[in-house]
């Protein structure tokens, strides 16, 4: 590949995902949104609420990828340790941010409740705020690490405010076609097509629908000319195999 | 903690998860199933279909965790490289396994289709088979790494055959209670309760339902006596905060 690719890593922080109590949906949303902004998620990690694990994962991801997005662990309870860990990862102090604290104080509460809520105002020294249009406490960013809430609706609100603030490359486009064919029936010509278009990623994903085996073929890349040409080649081999290609989406 | 904990890592292999095309559900299923078997998922990683990344992730996970479970990348097409990568990670050759090949040959096919299908019979030297009750090609295990399909129904069939074959500890039990309280309202006493029961993991998970904020409190551990005692303490602080605790599950 000659093009410059902007990469990202997603860190999903939370025991509840690893125990199976909660089905994560944040990775999927972040991946789709970043794709539109020309940023590709190259890895995701789900890690527990354990300080040394979070600190190590943040440091490694920050070094290896252009952007890091974390979800979870920024609430007011004892198990919310993400902000502390991000500060440790960057070797800076954690301090109450006046803008977040002001927002939290708008809603009155007894002293000890307010004290718990104000935990959410603590951000690493030098952090920028990520706005939160739900009205709750803001998220924050430091270096190339963007720290967001775990509740999907709040995370989505925070992520949406980053539009236009991140340096992405050309957006990744896709072409998809499905056919009621086993993958094996077209495996050889598919491999040949992939070899002819090194800039386009051709994925083959089997499915079972109404008791029949089928395959989704997904082409992803930034060059729409190559994408369209590859799509025609893929449709041809489906027809040669005796089936009808169904184009299902175009992104 | 004085108890011996059996740990696992899940490696979700596949570009389709990282692009957001597919919502992963395999991690959630594996985590729940392993919990029942007394094995705790301590980390999960979603990685692309790239050889050096898969090889490095498998080696690291195999070293750090008691068990590793992979999903995806064992089909018949050019982008299915998991078996090759596992062989590389263990420095062994990949060879056609007669039992898998026999199963594949039961369904007749033209020569080149059969050649593609037989890719799925290749396993690292010394691998044990993981049966596949859907009738498709088997998965395999080598060392502490268990290699399964990416299609959820097939992965679930493979995983279920491992029942009784893995060395787990005491199964992790849980107690859960919800209340229409903001997390902050009980953050301080919750932290105190957590400190009193170091063997039990107390998680606090906020939610929004019917426009109201609520919190789920989940206790997880192997000692049911401690779990029940902690549950009573948590219910007490909810009542003290003026709300009604709702017990929602018991595992």
Give a written overview of the molecule.
The structure is a homodimer of 251-residue chains. The first copy, chain A, contains nine helices and twelve strands. Helices cover 35% and strands 28% of the residues of chain A. In chain A, helix 2 (26-36) runs parallel beside helix 7 (152-160). Chain A is an alpha/beta fold. Chain A has two domains: 6-160, Molybdenum Cofactor Biosythetic Enzyme, Chain A (3-Layer(aba) Sandwich); 173-250, Alpha-Beta Plaits (2-Layer Sandwich), CATH 3.30.70. In chain A, strand 10 and strand 11 form a beta hairpin. The first copy, chain A, has a six-stranded mixed β-sheet with strand order 2-1-3-8-7-6, sandwiched between helices. Chain A has a four-stranded antiparallel β-sheet with strand order 10-11-9-12, covered by helices on one side. Strand 2 of chain A pairs antiparallel with strand 2 (39-47) of chain B.
Task: Kindly summarize this structure in a few lines.
The structure is a homodimer. In chain A, about 35% of the residues lie in helices and about 30% in strands.
Topology:
The structure is a homodimer of 251-residue chains.
Chain A: E1 6-13, H1 15-18, H2 26-36, E2 39-47, H3 51-64, E3 67-71, H4 82-89, E4 94-96, H5 98-105, H6 111-118, E5 122-124, E6 128-130, E7 139-142, E8 145-148, H7 152-160, E9 173-179, H8 187-196, E10 201-209, E11 212-221, H9 224-240, E12 246-250
Parallel strand pairs in A: 1-2, 1-3, 3-8
Antiparallel strand pairs in A: 4-5, 6-7, 7-8, 9-11, 9-12, 10-11
Helix pairs in contact in A: 2-7, 3-4
